[in-house]
Amino acid sequence: xxxxxxxxxxxxxxxxxxxxxxxxxxxxxxxxxxxxxxxxxxxxxxxxxxxxxxxxxxxxxxxxxxxxxxxxxxxxxxxxxxxxxxxxxxxxxxxxxxxxxxxxxxxxxxxxxxxxxxxxxxxxxxxxxxxxxxxxxxxxxxxxxxxxxxxxxxxxxx
Length: 158
Fold this sequence. Notes:
Helix content: 40-55%
Shape: elongated
Radius of gyration: 21 Å
Order of helices and strands: EHHEEEEEEH
Strand content: 25-35%
Strand order of the largest sheet: 1-2-3-4
Number of helices: 3
């Protein structure tokens, strides 16, 4: 049975957030154009000029940032990595290294960005990144589990 290692929000981060972001800026621009019919102040005109630039830049950032995250699952023998278009099975013995980078770490929560480096490139490249599921903490992280699985698979193959 597969266990999900990445957050369930991966699909939303990859596809829904950039689309919602673009829609939000389009609505904002429409509102500003409508408002400019009533008020021709310099602030409204400046906002009308800047909002599309900010919207395009933030949408491109969201798409680029979201593309790098993958959906990762594991069973007893391998990882299953997906970008929602293709899925690849990677044995634990092909894991070279795993690391975590904690984003927005604070008292309430932290976002673990897990990076897995492979011995041989897969269809997604030499490494993949995903946002860890569940509240992994620094004392027991998914990275430690990935390293244990790798070490167990490597010792079994010898």
